[in-house]
Design brief:
The chain is of the alpha+beta class. It folds into two domains: 109 residues, Glutamine synthetase, N-terminal domain (Ubiquitin-like (UB roll), Roll); 327 residues, Glutamine synthetase/guanido kinase, catalytic domain (Creatine Kinase, Chain A, domain 2, 2-Layer Sandwich), CATH 3.30.590.10. Helix content is 37%, strand content 19%. The protein contains 15 helices and 16 strands. Bound molecules: glutamic acid and magnesium ion. Glutamic acid (GLU) binds next to loops.
Length: 467
């Protein structure tokens, strides 16, 4: 489990001694530096690095970084809110030693996610990792609820030798095909080795549908650890690719047309150690709480897309009949519904049953996405919201009237539509807090302005190599 307490200046009890010993051990293993990573509001992972010898001091006092990145755009332009985006001020980055790993794909380096606090030792209101820690801690304290989560990662593998900015797939075989697996045999074997060495439990890795596309699914963890893992998985995929002369894209839409890269979130709520999605009296053995949790997700999904699909390019991916889940509907193992109910295999259901949320991509900040999804689900659970009838098949085939009668809504078709829904959603805005909610709106508006006048092909190209 992730430590849910905030970092404190001087270090929490025992932290500095632990960091000192770790630093000596890492030096002995040939690690020269530590990558300190966090994800900004636009979904870009930003880093600082420190020499291994500075790990104890970073653990005690943090490492400086401007708060301005909270309103950076994917193109590195800066927007402002009432409180963010100024050149003034500084924050301290605190590595989470529990998550520190030696990077197999980057010899000489270790990696750790950070929490960001102010120089006065206060929580920084735009630190998304701290926000998710708080949401999880509050749910546990107030409602005895815990969560398990995992982020699936899809990515497109291209040739490193492709002309600048272009994507040339590194494989030519059919989707899910054995040819593709052979074509990238060495790369994917090195990837599996790197994941294993870094303690990333892989469930499966396979060639996917789109050009050059692969997918890895990983084991579920507590939400903060799951978000950390998602960032680490991408760092690893990128680093190992580079050593093989390959270049990878996690963009929602590598091309304007066709199937994109998803970042589906698997999520389950637990009370007193029991999975609410199994062993209940509701549909598919869901408990009443699990049904209401799913209903909460569905109710807030249009607004959630401002967080889970945060790029203008996200809406090139969010199209019907491409398994991206663009309708507010749920179904058992239905890959066109936004919320796919997974019961798991008979005999393993108490462990495996969960909800898969599909309209999420890898432009999303995973801490923010998980925090917002959990807040939406909890809103449904607390209110006892009724879960509508399930759907089967592709909701795209339903006529307008039937869809309306069943409460099946198309998710926003543009980032502007998602922002409009987010603005109206008091529950999500208050879950994020005013500083982050304003940052989300300002950054999304900045992204929209940045791509004004681009056609779809130019839009895909603009974000192809950003995430
Ligand atoms: N690539 C699809 C997406 O954009 C998902 C395919 C799948 O279900 O794994 O979400
Ligand atoms: Mg997939």
């Amino acid at each position: 489990m992730t430590t849910l307490a905030d970092p404190v200046p001087g270090g929490r009890p025992g932290d500095v001694e632990r960091a000192t010993a770790l630093s000596a051990e890492l030096t002995g293993r040939g690690v020269h530096g530590i990558v300190l990573a966090y994800v900004d509001t636009a979904g870009i992972t930003r880093v600082k690095t420190v020499p291994t010898a500075k790990l104890a001091s970073a653990t005690a006092w943090g490492v400086g970084m401007s708060p301005v990145f909270d309103t950076f755009l994917a193109n590195d332009h800066i927007v402002t809110t009432d409180v963010l985006g100024s050149p003034d001020g500084d924050l301290r980055l605190y590595p989470d030693l529990d998550r520190l790993v030696v990077l197999s794909g980057q010899p000489g380096w270790a990696w750790a996610p950070v929490d960001r606090i102010t120089q006065d030792g206060q929580r920084h209101p735009a630190c998304t990792r701290s926000l998710l820690r708080r949401i999880v801690a509050d749910a546990e304290r107030e409602q005895r609820l815990t969560f398990r989560a995992a982020v699936e990662v899809e990515w497109a593998v291209g040739l490193g030798s492709a002309p600048d900015g272009e994507f040339v797939p590194a494989v030519s075989g059919p989707a899910y095909g054995a040819i593709r697996q052979v074509e990238l045999s060495d790369y994917t074997a090195d990837l599996l080795a790197a994941f294993a060495a870094q303690g990333v439990e892989v469930d499966q890795l396979h060639p996917e549908y789109a050009a050059g596309q692969f997918e890895v699914s990983v084991g579920a963890l507590d939400p903060v650890a799951a978000a950390d893992r998602s960032v680490l998985v991408r760092q690893t995929i990128r680093a190992v690719a580079q050593r093989h002369g390959l270049r990878v894209s996690f963009a929602p839409a590598v091309f304007a047309e066709g199937v994109g890269n998803g970042g589906h979130v698997h999520l389950s709520a637990w009370r007193d150690g029991a999975n609410l999605h199994s062993g209940g009296e509701g549909r598919y053995d869901m408990t009443a709480g699990a049904e209401s949790f799913a209903a909460g997700l569905l109710a807030h999904l249009p607004a959630l897309t401002a967080v889970t699909a945060p790029s203008p390019a996200s809406y090139l991916r969010l199209r019907p009949s491409q398994w991206a889940g663009v309708f507010t509907a749920w179904g058992l193992e239905t890959r066109e519904a936004a919320v796919r109910v997974i019961r798991g295999t008979a005999g393993q259901r108490a462990q495996q049953a969960n909800l898969e949320v599909k309209p999420v991509d890898l432009a999303a900040n995973p801490y923010l996405a998980l925090g917002a999804l959990i807040a939406a689900g909890l809103d449904g659970l607390t209110a006892g919201t009724a879960l509508p009838e399930e759907i089967t098949g592709d909701p795209a085939r339903l006529g307008t009237e039937e869809a309306a009668a069943r409460g099946v809504r198309r998710l926003p078709v543009s980032l502007a539509g998602a922002v409009a829904a987010f603005r109206e959603d008091e529950v999500l805005r208050s879950a994020l807090g005013p500083v982050l909610a304003d940052a989300v709106i300002a950054v999304r508006q900045g992204e929209i302005a940045a791509v004004d006048g681009l056609d779809d092909a130019q839009l895909a190209a603009a974000y192809r190599w950003k995430y």
